[in-house]
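Re: folding output
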Amino acid sequence: MKKVTLQVEGMSCQHCVISIEGALTEIGAAGKVDLQSNTVDVTYEEGKITINAVKEAIEEQGYEVV
C-alpha cells in the first residue's frame, strides 16, 4: 500500500470531507481529510490505482490538488 499526503485547496466544511473521502472510496482508495491543514492523507494500492487517478477523483469534486 502506498501512502501520500496531498495539499488540496478549496476545502472548508464537512461536506468537503464527505465529498472527497467518498470519491476516493469509489476508486478503491482511502482518504482522510484534515481541514485545518488543507491536506488529504491517501492510501491506495499501487498497480491498481495511480496517483493521477487519485488527484483526478479529488479534482472532479471541485477541489484543486496543488
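--- second protein (sequence, then structure) ---
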Amino acid sequence: MNKEELLKEYETTFGEKGKDVFFSPGRINVIGEHTDYNGGHVFPAAISLGVYGVYGPREDKKVCLFSGNVDGDIVEFDIDETTVEKDDRFWANYFKGMITYLREKYDNIDHGFNLYIKANLPSGSGLSSSAAIEMLMGIILKDEFNLDVDRIALAKMGQRTENEFVGLNSGIMDQFACIMGKKDSAIFLDCNTLDYEYKPLALGDYEIIIMATNKPHTLADSAYNDRVRECHDAVKKLQAKLDIKTLGELDNDTFDEYAYLINNETEIKRARHAVSENQRTLRATKAMQDGDLEKLGRLIDASHVSLHYDYEVTGQELDTLAEASWAQPGVLGARMIGGGFGGSAIAIVKKDQAEAFKKNVGKIYRDKVGYDASFYDAEIVDGTKRI
C-alpha cells in the first residue's frame, strides 16, 4: 500500500494530518503447527501481506480507531477503559488489550490517539491478522511514548491479549513471527525457552505460494481451545510416570512407550500430533540447512496428514488444497497452516510452474468446494516497524 494514500485516508477520516505510518506483517509457518502452546518448535516467517496503521496523537484521553476494511463507524473508548468489546466492535479488542497491558507497566501512556488501520491480508486467512494488529499497537506505543520495552516482551503481551483479553488459548508463535521477522529468513523458535535462530529460507528454484480457502473462520469460536485442553489433559496423565511439563519435551519413541498412560483415543491422537510435529520441525529445519529440499517437502506433507488424522483441524477446504497440490508437477510439499478450520495452506512450488499450479489447483478447488480459493506469492519481510 502507498504511504501517501494511507496518510490521505487518515486525513479524510479524522480531519487532520497523521503523524506516522507503521506496518505489521502477517506470518506463514513453514512447519510446526499447534506445537507452540505444547512447548515445541516452530519455523515461521513474516510476510509482505499485513496491517498498516497511521497514528496521530490526541490531547484528551480518547482512543479513536477506524478500519479501512470494515464497514462501520469510528470505535471510541477512553484510554483507561478495559471492558471487552462485543459484536461488530470485537476487532478493537486486539488494540485494547495491548493498551491495557502496556499501561499496567508504563504510566507515561497518558493521552489518547487516533489510529487509521488498513490491511491487505485476506479476511479470515489464518495468516495471523490478530497478532499483526497486536504487534502494530505494541510498536506504535513503544515508539510514540518512548517505552523501554523490547520486542519479545511485546510478543508476550500480544499472547496475553489473545489468552486473557480475547479468550483464545494460543501460543506465542504468531506474535513472535510478526514482530521478530527478518527479510528472507524464517525463525527457528523453541516455544518452551524462546531461544531462536534465524535461518535463511533458501529454496533455490522454488517459491512459497499461499492458498487462502476464503472460508470465514474465527479461532475463538472454533475447537481450538478444545485442542489445547485435550493436550493439557494428556500431559497430566503422562506426568504420572514422566517428569515433563509439555509434550514438546518428548520424542516419538518415548511417547509411544508411555502412551498407555493416556488411555483415551482422542487425547492420544492429539498428543501424538504435538510430539510428532515437533520432531518433524526439527528434522525439516535440518533438511533445509542441508539443502535436502525433497525431504523438507515430504515432512511438510506429513505435517498435513497428521493435522488431518490426529489433530482433526483441516476440513474439506484445506484438504482439497493440500491434496490437489500434491498431485501437481513441480511441487515439493503442501500443507495447511495456522489454526485450521478454514484459513490458508502453503505449497512449495517450482517457480517456472507456479502459474500452471495456481490455475490447476484453483480449478480443482472450485469444482469440489463450489467457490474460488485465492493465491498469493509470499515475500519474506522484516517484522513490525515504522515506514
